[in-house]
Amino acid sequence: MRAFLTQTRLVAKALVHAAPVAAAVAIFTAAPVWAAPLGDVTIATHLDLTTLDGSQNVTGWHRWVFRNLYDPLITLDKSGKLAPALAEKWERIDEETWRFHLRKGVKFHNGEPFTADAVRFWLEQAKRPESQARGSLTLIKEAGVVDDFTVDFITDGPVSYLLETIADRVSAIPPKYYEEVGPQAFALKPVGTGAYKFVSWRRGDRVVLEGNADYWGGAPKADKLTFWVVPDASARAAAALNGEASIAANIAPLETPRFKGSTVARIEATESGNRPIWGGLVYDRPIFRDKRVREAVNLAVNRQAIVNRLLRGFGKPMGQLCASSMGCFDSKIEAMPYDPERAKKLLDEANLQDKSIILHAPQGPVPLSSELTQVIASDLQKVGFTVKIQIDEASQYSAKLYDFKGNQKDVGDIFIYFYQGGPGSETTIRSLTHSKGNWNWSHYVSPEVDGWYESSRREFDPEKRDAELQKISAQVRADIPWLFLYEPLSIWAVNNKIAWKARSDDQIIVQDMEPASK
């Protein structure tokens, strides 16, 4: 492969034909050293990262970068099925032990060999108390190194959905380098095994990667890969339309008409949403102790109108915990109806003395949060609530959610947020609604729900497991600890020179892409 790369170096510039990158990027990166089929690829995103340490964060926009910088232990293919990555195969040894047989001959970008110890080390870092990823990995008690290329995951009791949970979330980091530089330095200058290796990170602006010529999975599809933070939705769409961005994430529905007739870029959308938008009703606050009030909140909000007007139809109203792409989705549960008259009646019956609500949302993680909160507030006011809107910057909002010591005292009575749904999301919804869940910010407690989570963990038959999870969906609908809202379809702008379809798991893997002419 190196010989081929050398031969093609001289014609690199002539062959580079992907979308041009903003001129400013050039000052951070070296010139391309070979001609990858896509040339340079720039992906405009809505949010900056908090870390480049792949073991510390599993949110979707972090994993867009991590999936290209690090390799996962196992992955999901385009159809959502489990597929090998750093692990070539796996097996269940007993109810609490999964064994992974690792790929040989893989090296980290710094030359350190990839072994089972790198997987063990990744898991240990991911479970540090300050790690955002910790909540989704509590199911794994420890990783046991059997030999250099075999590692066992020992779970905390039977975990039937372990493989789906760790797919594209568990990876490997080089222990020697990590211990030499320390966690803080690693978070700024990471080393992985992926198709792209780190070049630079300017916070609030961009992360630049370059193709890894020694990649075990074949030649990188791009010479240079840039994740460019463009928080403004209109500017992101413009960047795709003028060719500065090869791909733009989180295109606002209102921006989609701009792409009609464009010869530069097109819109791609998923068929189902895997980032459901929901509102947590803080269950133990006085105003929400009465179920009639929680139901009134849900009946007051016209979610179909939100989908039609704010999302331009790129979404589906919800009435349950799970999005339609998830195994826990129960097709028999309909979206919450819009019935303001019934909402008023319930509020009259509840005889609330104080109908004041703080409606809280973050800017960034929830698209259109300002517009959405205004619509919800208007609907709630029509049935008699007094609503104060509070919008926080994403990191501020996150800090308030994770203030477990303060019992989330600074979180609004209704807090709007999202979760990453799709295949393998059982751990996520468990964390959100189990009484001991790390992300149970609404303080919801249901012994029945806790019990079904436990029984589903022990059920290795997928159909029976989904049936147990669907009981949870039904119970959460009955208890109404959330303001059920909608599942938005993911909308991407894609340069016409690139052949790529939006994936159901919302991942963006540059190695999936091809030049459009092929």
Would you mind describing this structure in some detail?
This protein is an alpha+beta fold. Helix content is 29%, strand content 21%. It has 15 helices and 21 strands. The protein has helices spanning 2-9, 12-15, 60-69, 116-126, 162-166, 175-188, 233-241, 291-300, 303-309, 340-350, 369-382, 394-401, 426-433, 447-457, 462-479, and strands at residues 40-45, 74-76, 82-84, 87-94, 97-102, 140-147, 150-155, 196-202, 206-211, 224-229, 247-248, 265-269, 277-281, 315-317, 356-363, 386-393, 414-418, 482-488, 491-495, 498-499, 514-515. The strands form 5 sheets. A 7-stranded mixed β-sheet has the order 8-9-10-1-11-19-12, sandwiched between helices. Helix 11 (369-382) links the parallel strand 15 (356-363) and strand 16 (386-393). The radius of gyration is 23 Å and the shape is globular. It starts with a helix and ends with a strand. Mean pLDDT is 90; it is low at 1-32.
Number of helical runs?
A: 15
Shape: globular
* Structural class assignment: alpha+beta
Largest sheet: 7 strands, mixed
Radius of gyration: 23 Å
Residue stretches low in confidence (pLDDT < 50, at least 5 long) are 1-32
Helical fraction equals 25-40%
Calculate the terminal CA-CA distance, rounded to whole Å. Answer: 21 Å
Query: Order of strands side by side in the largest beta sheet?
Result: 8-9-10-1-11-19-12
- What percentage of amino acids are in beta strands? 15-25%
Overall residue-averaged pLDDT value? 90
How many β strands by DSSP?
21
